[in-house]
Structure formats: C-alpha cells, structure tokens
Amino acid sequence: MRTFLDKLHDLKLKEVAQRQKVISEKYLRSQAESLDNPAEFRRALLRAPDEAISLITEVKSKAPGRKNVESLDPEAIVRDYESGGAKAISVLTDENWFGGSLETLEIVREATVLPLLHKEFIITPYQLLEGRVRGANAALILAYYFQQAELAKIIAEAKNIGLEAVVECSLENELPRVLAVNPDILMINNRAIAAIPEEPVETYDLGSVDVISAWWERNPELRSWKKQPGKLLISASCVNSKEDIQSLLKIPCDAALIGNAAMVAPERATFIRSLSKTAKEYLSS
C-alpha cells in the first residue's frame, strides 16, 4: 500500500528538481559555508529532572483535513509563542498540504532569536541547504525515508553544514535502525504518519499522546539510549492539553512539539503558558 509519505516523497523529488534549475546546490552550499554557527537547538531544550518540559511551538497554517488559520501572519504568531515561553519554533515549509514555504521560514528567522526547526519532508541534501540558508538551526529527518546507512549519511550531511538532525520515528519498527545510528535528538511522533494512506484526510488526526510512553516501556534500547549524556527526547503530535503534558512527565521526555493546538488556540500565549505552568505544578506536587 502506498502511503501519504510515499506520495510526498514523489512530490519532493519534483519540487527539488524544479528549484535546482533556478538555484544550484553549489550556490546554496557556498551560502551556507559563509554563515555563522547557529544557536544550539538541542541545548536549548534539554531539561533536568526537576525542570518543566520544554515547548516547541509550530507555525503551520493547515494540515490534511483542517485549516488552522485563514491567513498566516508568521510575525504575530512568533510574538505569541515568545510571550508564552516557547523554547524553540518549528516551521513547516511544505506548501501543498501544510500551507508553508521557505519564505515563511525566513520571515520567522528574522522575527525571533529562538532556535528553529525546519520541518519538511527531507529526502535530499539540497533541502537541508535550503533550510540552513534561511535560518534553520535544526532539520527534521523522517526515519521512514532512510535505511540505516542512508540515515547516518543524511545526519552527517546536516552536521557538516551546521544543522542538528532531529530524527523522527512514527512506527515502532523504525526504532532499531534509528537507535543504531545513535542520534543526538530523537522525536517520537504519537501519530503514525508512516502508516497513513495516500489520501490522508480522514485518518490524519488519529493518534494518542500515550504512544511515546508505551514505546518507552516496551523498548529497553530506547531507555539505554536516553541514559547517554545530552540525548534529547521529543514528543510530537497529539499534545493538546494539560493532561497530555502531565502524561509526558512520567517519562524523561525533554520537550513536546505543539502544532495544531497552539495554532488554533484563541489566545496562543496564554495557552502555551498554561502548559508550562501545568508542568511546573506537576513536578512540584
């Protein structure tokens, strides 16, 4: 069965081929080499056991089957996120399904000093370079697209141009090959996007924040990986409420990525502050 991610893989190959006709990879690489080292994404999010979970908030105008905003105002959204206490911002740059763009990433970079995650369906080094020159500190790498050797290679490519690789698993059977390359940052997606069918509208929102906790209990290799100094564990998707934050604090999860819930909150800053406050109260109780 072809999946939504397969469909996006084909789309990205076409998009990259078109953009390379306009801007060469050689040019992007020269631009990336001239940039200063970016702020560290991982260190901004790591937490001690007695510290509140770090929040990564997302700029995303829509998702399959839903629209978050009628008109995207990245600068206003960033102000809300900063006011709410977000530690980093994720910017989705896919246009067709999520209403993003590389230009949005650039606007967000100009509006904030917070570390930025370039969230895209990355399958080529060219895409890594596109994000880096527009101000990303880190790049999302989906395990679905890479076997172990290829995964190690794309992580090294990111590091070579000053990006931190955020390696995402959304299926439990992806975990062994990801842990085998020992990434510094692991994101577990509570929504099994790698299993979503090619036409995703009716199934895209399925998932549960309890997924990451279940994986944690079932996989001693995951627990061993996290015991290493400096390893960052992120929970993504289905984190929508105070109760979800409390659930994540039962395991050593460093950060939570808040996407649609942050975008649609009537008062974004207040919503984000409430999640942080919940985490602090839970830890002190």
Structure summary:
With 285 residues, this protein is of the alpha/beta class. It has 13 helices and ten strands.
Task: Tell me what the structure shows.
The structure is a single chain. This protein is 45% helix and 15% strand. It has 285 residues and is of the alpha/beta class. It has one domain: TIM Barrel. The strands form two sheets. It has an eight-stranded parallel β-barrel, surrounded by four helices. Strands 2-3 form a two-stranded antiparallel ribbon. The radius of gyration is 18 Å and the shape is globular.
Radius of gyration: 18 Å
- Proportion of strand residues: 15-25%
Strand arrangement, largest sheet? 1-4-5-6-7-8-9-10
Shape: globular
CATH class: Alpha Beta
Total of DSSP H or I helical runs spanning 4+ residues: 13
Mean pLDDT score: 93
Show the helix and strand layout.
Layout: H1 4-22, H2 25-33, H3 41-45, E1 54-59, E2 62-63, E3 66-67, H4 74-84, E4 88-92, H5 102-111, E5 116-119, H6 125-133, E6 138-142, H7 148-160, E7 164-169, H8 175-180, E8 185-189, H9 210-218, H10 220-227, E9 232-236, H11 242-248, E10 255-258, H12 260-264, H13 268-284
Parallel strand pairs: 1-4, 1-10, 4-5, 5-6, 6-7, 7-8, 8-9, 9-10
Antiparallel strand pairs: 2-3
Properties at a glance:
285 residues, alpha/beta, TIM Barrel, 13 helices, 10 strands, 45% helix
